[in-house]
Amino acid sequence: MSATIDVIGIGVGELGERAKHQLAKATLVIGSERQRKLSQQYFPQAQQIDLPIPLSDLSELLQHHATKTVAILASGDGLFFGIGNFLLRILDHQRLKFYPNISSIQSCMGLIGEPWQDAVILSLHGRSGNSIRRYLAPDTLFGIFTDKDNHPGSIAQELVSQGLGDATVWVGEALGTNSQKVSAFDATTLAASIQTFHPLNVVVVKTTATTSSLPTFPGIPDHQFSTAGEPGFGMISKREVRLTILSFMQPAPGQIAWDIGAGCGSVCVEWARWNPRGKIYGVETDAERITHIHNNAAKFGVEHNCIVVQGTAPSDCEDLPDPDCVFIGGSNGNLEKLLEYCYGRLRPNGALVASAVTDKSQTTLAQFSHQQRLLKQHIEWSEVSVRKNLPDSEDVRTLSPVQIIRCVKS
């Protein structure tokens, strides 16, 4: 077996004796200049190399130095939003030995005296600032890793824009150093200020029990989606229908899903919001609707796991990963072919969910269901009829009944 690589956490806390011992044995130490300066007393004779950028070059670097005793320096706990996740993807688990330090989030929580076992911890490092919207909710404690673009001021501005301006924001700067500082603000004040902070900072946010403008439970109100129609209408699956579709899809962590004929994206966006570890591909042909899907994905903070595919199914699905679930909401008159293709691409135990409004599409679904029953496949069927008022009006609109089926592939 190849030599073990030690991953040593450097940062807020003192190094443990075992970590010091491993660093003293190292003949090659890889880490940032700041990390090496903080710990170089423990490896005075070792060769030192900067952590490569991009990080993908690290694999080649390790192969080049395969005969050396290697230690890689990590910030705080390397397995907590750190380099450990990347190393586990490129190296055998048995080759890695981790020596964690106290994370900066843990240190900041201790300094402000906030129990954090129920906190929502997220990293905005190298990510879109919109992604925080997925998690924002009233009466919640957050620990946030920042970067130069997603800094304390921009986080406060996002809080204010989502109706959480009364949240308390703590900024922990240069934690574990002689310049350590923790400051508290309300989000509204911080958002309006021009204050700058030490580049090494983390943010803790505690929201109050006030209502956020973002949904906190499945069933996003129709009017919150961007569409080409009046608020609450347009090319979206209405909330009552959408909840039935999602319950048939049963999103599970880490799954892959397709939304065929995604319209303005209400199904794929809501699927992605409540399943942050999954990934859904919204396939749509119309350019204007594609724009609305992008807008909705940004609004609800799901741009990283709601992937928009402009094209026609099934031809433009060939390069997509095989799905655990497929929803067919729009077929352009090609439903029979889509059912056959999507069912064929499903992974074992995957679910095919499809909806139909017109007589022709309902007949196609009925024929497909009959065929699958003959093959002893599990079939569920539901029809949803909706009467609802127009936005801020007593006028009522009756929507066409929608048939929905679910077929599980054994």
Structure described in brief:
The protein is α/β, with parallel strands linked by helices and 410 residues long. The protein has helices at 17-25, 33-39, 58-64, 84-90, 104-112, 152-161, 187-192, 239-249, 266-274, 287-299, 335-345, 359-374; strands at residues 5-10, 28-30, 47-49, 70-75, 96-99, 120-123, 141-145, 168-173, 181-186, 201-206, 256-260, 279-284, 306-310, 325-328, 351-356, 378-384, 387-389, 396-398, 402-408.
Determine the mean pLDDT.
93
Largest sheet: 7 strands, mixed
Number of helices: 12
Radius of gyration: 26 Å
- Estimated structural class: alpha/beta
Domain count, please report it: 3
Gap from first CA to last CA: 40 Å
CATH architecture of the largest domain: 3-Layer(aba) Sandwich
Tell me the β content. Answer: 15-25%
Classify the fold: give the CATH topology of the largest domain. Rossmann fold
Fraction of residues in H or I helices? 25-40%
* Strand arrangement in the largest pleated sheet: 13-12-11-14-15-19-16
Low-confidence stretches: none
- Can you tell me the CATH class of the largest domain? Alpha Beta
Number of strands: 19
CATH superfamily of the largest domain: Vaccinia Virus protein VP39
